[in-house]
Specification:
Helices cover 48% and strands 14% of the residues. The protein contains ten helices and seven strands. β1, α1 and β2 form a beta-alpha-beta unit. The chain is globular and about 50 Å long. The N and C termini lie far apart (37 Å).
Length: 263
Amino acid sequence: MDIKGKWVWITGASSGIGKALAIEYAKTGCKLLLSARNTEQLEAVKATCKGAEEIKILPLDLLKIDESIEKAKEFLATIGPIHTLINNAGISQRALVKDTSLDVDRRIMEINFFAVSALTKLVLPQMIEQKEGQFIAMSSLVGKFGSPLRSAYSASKHALHGYYEALRAETYEDGIRVLIVCPGFIKTNISINAVTGSGEKQNKMDDKQANGMLPEDLAKKILRAVYKAKEEIVVGGSERYGVLVKRLFPGLFSKLIKRVKVT
């Protein structure tokens, strides 16, 4: 896939995986559109991206999705069609089901699923018209299986799989590709920013997150998967084997997931 000179839109681009993807994609000579809530951080990421033909920022708050869609619609009309949309923005969770309010469940689904669906619908018609495009959905290992303390987060990632697998089947004749990325523990601030049952930030780095794969390494693996036209990749350390165990030995997996340390 040649993306040189084409627009790549990355959400959640102000830090972590999104920032690493922006830096890696810039090396291809594409045009970058970077979105997140924090304008100052987006400007800092923009300054570190080398090689891109053009870089623009579009601050968005995906909890205010209707407002964000209108803002994005006006902005996209000024720059031309998007070739690749990387739905990376998201929020995680660290709370038991019994301790999590319904408002927190809804907030997680709103950001991790409904906002993704809205952005997808925004750019899909022009991708179909140009007979070319790609969606990259940032899922998780817990998009493949449920894990304690992540009930709504896991549900939101499971939803992405069903949604994008359906979209892939619907649009393959239109030249549209879908890549679903399932990372394990990546060394980002996702656990620090994860919400508790009341909606407050956890404000603590999980041990496994702290020892996880670097986001820069994940970004390289994602771009390689793009060039190889992969439909799904599972990335991480030994935790990634959980997907295989769940598939081949579901009874064993059920016993393990009840005992394993998940933070």
